[in-house]
UniProtKB/TrEMBL annotation, chain A:
It holds the Pfam family AMP-binding_C_3. GO terms for molecular function: long-chain fatty acid-CoA ligase activity. Keywords: Fatty acid metabolism, Ligase, Lipid metabolism. InterPro entries: AMP-binding_CS (IPR020845), AMP-dep_synth/lig_dom (IPR000873), ANL_N_sf (IPR042099). It comes from the Bacteria. This is Long-chain acyl-CoA synthetase. It comes from Rubricella aquisinus.
Automatic annotation (TrEMBL), chain B:
PANTHER family: ABC TRANSPORTER ATP-BINDING PROTEIN (PTHR45772:SF1), CONSERVED COMPONENT OF ABC TRANSPORTER FOR NATURAL AMINO ACIDS-RELATED (PTHR45772). The lineage of its organism: Bacteria, Pseudomonadati, Pseudomonadota, Alphaproteobacteria, Rhodobacterales. One of its GO terms (cellular component) is plasma membrane. This is Branched-chain amino acid transport system ATP-binding protein. It comes from the Bacteria.
């Protein structure tokens, strides 16, 4: 394991705060929009508030090593509270603010939280609801007093009052606080973050100061983040990404964390702040692009022409220019003109005029979407990470950005691919343990420190970039032994706006087939524009022209899949368009809209048989659950089409 | 309820209700030959949430219009803050500290949320004509103070995201909230709400109930409201007046009213003569 060299004065959050207060004390550390105006805290003010709150909490009995829950939307007072908890020797445990009281009770109980710091009445109410079951929880704090004035204040405290009391104690107890800060270095726990837990109960991931601060240092240097940078903190505080961006990197680099006025105003606040460093999940970028396109369709003819003309040019030369490749003088000139007329104003509207480094992660992003932002000159990159790694496993360096990889190993991270294709990593950011769960820790992290990601992937030999194929448990083998990665192909299909959902079959079989769902919005729109009448979803889905369009999409995907020798076997030979939309109410999708393969295979077994026995069409009758819980049936005769595939060369046995 | 002390009472949830703020005595209101309100008396106490309920056409809105001075009753007296009220224009009554919202939303559709709520500060603007024209001195200072107050309301009602949106584009539930904001901007002592929850879904009703309780709690505003939804009324109000055919048929705490046979008859529909 490569150890990072972290200077002694910067090896914990309280010390980083003091370091920044000393070095850049008059620069803004936090901003929040309140009462319509951006209010700011300088590093010096934040440092004072941290000390006073820490003293106030020590006075109320916080002991070193105890956990303090932080619950609420991104607010400066909550970020400062996390620093203060660290300073008092405690461990902050940010909790998802939209959890219901029951979920909160589990986490609060599991970490035996001593205090809970809440944003407002909503969160206080939830904690009070379950407080009886939590013998360790003694005090509750709140930031916004609205609606709380008449509550019993014996164990309920206004943060402002606690801070005031702490200020009075600075003279007498300041030395105790200094001792507590001094006692905690790189090996002490920095934070505990609960993973969202798609399977079973959430697990508490213990991350040390070494994990967080070395990761923050490495990643800040990787993208040369500096104190003049600005981020907008709008993703949940309980998510590891926000902890790294808004706490780790912000403290290390000394940049300013801006908090939106309310979750609904995020887009407006983004425009006002114009962050230089920005993170968003792919669906955010997708949504934004869709908005732009819809608004362009309503624009006048000339504006439309201008937009499309210059966007075509940007698509051609923009990404190359961003990567620093040379383009002709004429192209440069035209791009500059486009920047003046189209790209500049558009970026300004999106709030991305100043973005120097932008990241997306979490799921695959459509290449068109990715290229759109890059062609505008926005340096959007991909990274791959997880809570257990303090986020960073791989990321894309400037100049080597592609839609289909997640980049090279982040500084200080070692990668290895197991026999099964699963990706393993090891780094100074690798988590200490799952709290009170040694079995899971042992399952995930081996004695040498290697952690299994649960994702299957491979490293491109010539570039060293990691490509993620699928969840390791979904990856299978075809009959001839070649790799079967359904999600990889499904994602490619879903990048077409006409395809809402796709399910690919082929595990253990000689060839792949697929179910498709049309996207009713996109296909319905197309039908309307082309005067195609339809009476029902089933009719539209089975319309010959729709079939042909989707066939073209499938064939295009086949071509793209065939380019990759390892995955060429996953080309789709036959497909059908389902007569109903896959739905979580019928158990076909999870509540987070992920395909449940087993259930679909059971429900539509006869259709899968038809896909493989060569029949031209199949009659389907399926039970559906309506929103009010009633059951009914939908039925239709589904056409099965053959799609052209690119012939595959001799089967190579996957050799590493 | 007549055994109530003149100094006020304590509600079951521990809120302290003060003395009489508004009292209507033997009000009768006629429109030509139609008697809209017949000999009604009741009082509203400081800090109270007071509801007026009744079937359609019972005279509830007319009653509210009498309280805020829009209608002048032919008989009876209105007492506010211990003084008998003379006939005066609604804007003068607004200055006394009574604000209201309307059954059918009455906002300026083309203006933004912010500007609509700013109009509620009208009674707080005293700068002279020239000062206003030049936007200097008092006018500028007043505008800043008023904007600060309005921003507090926007924060309170959680409508930051629609600050600059023209209200005509907002969904119904939000328009109702903006209207409440405008009424609050006048810093009323007595707030009249005419069917604040009409046409709302369950979730919007819950939100609005929460806001009404919070207004009462945070600003100490006395509230009189008309509402059809019996569940909501019984949940949030301290005392309820029940009207039917222009007459008062019940008055008291929700529990008392709920058990009153006259009220049950009016709601379940008994043949009237």
């Amino acid at each position: 394991m490569t150890d990072v060299d972290v200077p002694a004065g910067r090896d914990s959050f309280p010390r980083l705060m003091a370091y920044n207060a000393d070095r850049i004390g008059d620069q803004p550390a936090f901003r929040v929009k309140e009462y319509g105006i951006w209010q700011s805290w300088t590093w010096a003010e934040a440092h004072k508030e941290m000390r006073h709150l820490a003293l106030g909490m020590m006075d109320l009995g916080l002991q070193p090593g105890e956990h303090v829950a932080i619950i609420g939307n991104n607010r400066p007072e909550l970020y400062i509270a996390m620093y203060a908890v660290s300073a008092a020797g405690g461990v902050p445990v940010p909790i998802y603010q939209d959890s219901v009281a029951e979920e909160m009770a589990y986490v609060l109980d599991h970490c035996s939280a001593r205090f809970a710091i809440c944003q407002d009445q909503e969160q206080v109410d939830k904690v009070l609801d379950v407080k009886e079951r939590l013998p360790n929880l003694t005090e509750i704090f709140y930031g916004d007093p609205r609606g709380l004035r008449k509550y019993d204040h014996t164990h309920l405290h206004d943060l402002k009052i606690v801070i005031e009391r702490g200020e009075e104690m600075e003279g007498g107890n300041g030395a105790d606080l200094d001792a507590r800060i001094a006692a905690r270095g790189l090996d002490e726990t920095c934070v505990m973050l609960y993973t969202s837990g798609t399977t079973g109960r959430p697990k508490g991931v213990v991350l040390s100061n070494r994990n967080i601060i070395s990761t923050a240092k490495n990643s800040s240097e990787f993208d040369s983040l500096r104190e003049s940078d600005n981020v907008l903190a709008y993703l949940p505080m309980a998510w590891v990404g926000d902890f790294i961006f808004s706490m780790g990197q912000a403290a290390w680099s000394g940049f300013c964390v801006n908090c939106p006025e309310s979750p609904d105003t995020m887009q407006m606040n983004l425009r006002e702040i114009g962050p230089t460093y920005f993170f968003a999940p792919p669906r955010f970028f997708e949504g934004l692009l869709t908005n732009v396109m819809i608004r362009m369709e309503d624009a006048g003819k000339f504006k439309q022409w201008l937009f499309h003309h210059f966007m075509a040019h940007a698509k051609r030369v923009g990404p190359a220019m961003l990567d620093g490749e040379s383009v002709s003088g004429g192209d440069k000139l035209k791009y500059a003109l486009g920047n003046l007329l189209v790209y500049g104003p558009l970026k300004n509207t999106l709030g991305m005029s100043r973005v120097r480094v932008g990241y997306t992660a979490g799921e695959a992003i459509g290449p068109e979407i990715f290229d759109f932002y890059r062609s505008l000159g926005i340096n959007l990159k991909q990274l791959y990470g997880q809570t257990e790694a303090s986020v960073f496993i791989t990321q894309q360096p400037d100049g080597q950005v592609r839609a289909d990889t997640v980049g090279v190993a982040s500084p200080g991270v070692e990668l290895k691919i197991a026999e099964s294709g699963e990706v393993y990593y090891r780094s100074s950011g690798t988590f200490v343990e799952y709290y009170k769960n040694p079995e899971s820790t042992a399952d995930t992290k081996d004695p040498e420190g290697w952690v299994a990601t649960g994702d299957a992937g491979f490293i491109e030999p010539d570039t060293g970039h990691l490509r993620i194929i699928d969840r390791a448990k979904d990856v299978g083998k075809m009959a001839d032994g070649s790799l079967f990665a359904p999600k990889y192909v499904e994602n490619k299909l879903k990048f077409f706006p006409n395809i809402l959902e796709a399910v690919v079959f082929g595990n253990g079989r000689d060839r792949c087939t697929a179910f498709l769902n049309i996207d009713l919005t996109a296909v319905g729109n197309w039908a309307e524009r082309n005067n195609i009448a339809y009476a029902s979803y089933q009719e539209l889905a089975q319309h010959p022209q729709v079939q042909s369009t989707l066939q073209a999409h499938v064939e295009e995907v086949n071509k793209s899949v065939a380019e990759d020798p390892m995955l060429a076997g996953c080309q789709i030979h036959r497909f059908l368009i389902l007569h109903k939309q896959l739905d979580a109410d019928d158990g076909e999708l999870t509540r987070t809209q992920k395909v449940r393969r087993r259930i679909i295979e059971e429900r539509y077994g006869d259709l899968i048989i038809a896909l493989y026995d060569g029949s031209e069409s199949v009659f389907a009758k399926t039970e559906v659950t309506y929103e009010d819980g009633r059951k009914g049936f939908v039925s239709a005769t589904l056409e099965i089409r053959d799609a052209a595939v690119v012939p595959v060369q001799t089967q190579q046995v996957a050799a590493e | 309820m007549n055994d109530m002390s003149p100094d006020g009472y304590t509600t079951p949830d521990g809120r302290q209700i003060g003395g009489v703020m508004m009292e209507v005595k033997n009000i009768t209101l006629r429109f030509g030959g139609v008697v809209a309100i017949k000999d009604i008396s009741f009082d509203i106490r400081e800090g109270e949430i007071r509801a007026i309920i009744g079937p359609n056409g019972a005279g509830k809105s007319s009653m509210l219009n009498v309280i805020n001075g829009f209608y002048h009753p032919q008989e009876g007296e209105v007492w506010f803050n211990g003084a008998k009220r003379k006939a005066m224009k609604p804007h003068a009554i607004a200055k006394q500290g009574i604000a209201r919202t309307f059954q059918n939303i009455a906002l300026f559709k083309g203006m933004s949320t912010l500007d609509n709520i700013m109009t509620g500060r009208f009674t707080k603007m005293n700068a002279g004509f020239w000062s206003q024209c030049l936007w200097k001195g008092k006018a500028e200072q007043e505008e800043i103070e008023n904007r600060e107050y309005v921003e507090k309301i926007i924060d309170f009602l959680e409508i930051q995201a629609i600050r600059k949106t023209p209200v005509g584009r907002l969904p119904y539930g939000l328009q109702k909230r903006v209207e409440l904001g405008r009424a609050l901007a006048a810093e009323p002592k007595l707030l009249l709400l005419d069917e604040p929850m009409a046409g709302m879904n369950v979730e919007e009703k819950e939100d609005m109930s929460r806001f009404i309780l919070d207004v009462n709690d945070e600003f100490g505003t006395t509230i009189a409201l008309i509402e059809h939804d019996m569940g909501v009324v019984m949940d949030i109000s301290d005392r309820v007046v029940v009207m039917d055919y222009g007459r008062k048929i019940g008055d008291g705490t929700p529990d008392v009213v709920r058990a009153d046979p006259a009220v049950i008859d009016a709601y379940l529909g008994v043949a009237h003569d």
